[in-house]
Amino acid sequence: MEVTIGVQNVAREITVETDADSDEVAKAVDTALASPEGVLRLTDSKGRTILVPGRAVGWVQVGESEKGRVGFHSL
């Protein structure tokens, strides 16, 4: 699952590839945003932990990973 996080006052977003499903990610986001001291905590597919303060989260996009495409497309 690919998760992209927009952080307030930061020009670039954070993209994380995780083994968690969309419901787990949504629950983590909801928990982080529920309190002023909340922290969005995600573990990527390599086992690294990403922490983002809940008050700094601007937006979160959750979607399937796009597989690399091979071949030619006819126009």
Automatic annotation (TrEMBL):
It holds the Pfam family DUF3107. It comes from the Bacteria. InterPro entries: DUF3107 (IPR021456). This is DUF3107 domain-containing protein. It comes from Phycicoccus avicenniae.
